[in-house]
Predict the 3D structure of the following.
Amino acid sequence: MRKSPKFSPEVIERAVRLVFDAKDQYPSQWAAIDSIAGKIGCTAVTLRKWVRQGERDSGARPGPTTAEQQRIKELEREVRELRKTNEILKLASAYFAQAELDRHSKN
């Protein structure tokens, strides 16, 4: 089970915005990420992950957006549930078919 996120979506959004706004003040994006991560209390790798997702969400980087990732998770969950339901229905169908055969053979 995953633990609850340490940072609120507002903090994540603000941190990503700080990196985007500070790009001219640092020699590289990594330098900006490293500096800002220390100020908000997360690791630089975590902030880099947030920045990359922000870039995908804004269209600056290829890949699935946050909304697309959420939709994929929902669809995968639905597929799992449907497969379970299908398996239950197959077993029930086989059970009732066998019961019907048994009933006919006893008559």
